[in-house]
Amino acid sequence: MSMNKLQSTSGASSANGIKMLVYGRSGMGKTRLCATLPNPLILSAESGLLSLREYNLPFWQINNVTDLTEAFNWVQGSNEARSTFQSICLDSITEIAEQVLSNAKKLAKDPRQAYGALIEEMTDTVKKFRDLQGYHIYMSAKQAMNKDEVTGKQMYGPEMPGKVVGPSLPYLFDEVFMLGKNKDPQTQKDIHFLQTQSDFQVDAKDRSGALDYYEWPDLGNVINKILGATAPGQPQAQ
Asked: Stretch 108-134: mean pLDDT, rounded?
């Protein structure tokens, strides 16, 4: 084996980018997280971009699978895209899956065939974007109570059409967070946070080992911490 083939794991995250899945209830602020990423391009299948009206962020409207394929090919192969953007946001992967399922139902005579096509196409889509080198990837998803078909255990996790794709999504990422909120006991104001570790009710994980149990909902800061360059002056979630 040639020594030229060897690479260092310490530089892999910097070269490949950080890949994150964040889920949460509707209106929690998942779309707004896009604005905390470095130089983002938003692939939007949602209608909630109003929350980003104070920012001047470029987005690509995803109305069907063809739009998504076109966007992927552009960010993968375009020098213009790579010189302009550092982060790609899929907002949300739940809405994209619903579009995929709608298309599959039009082509399939049996609904079971449509769901089979959904599983295959969404798994392939998520892996393609996750494996894009040179970009940070953020995928948002709606929140659901998912049931493990083997153990019967129920936990909060990403929502997807059908019973298979949602519970399987976290296995495809090293970083899976739940976006939640609590009341500040003193001010009674809502404090939003990212939960980065699982408990008895929440499916989450941080394979980098660099994050606190609760993180401030700033994905740029999360990336910096994972890469070993924590941004100073960021408040911590309570």
From this structure: 81
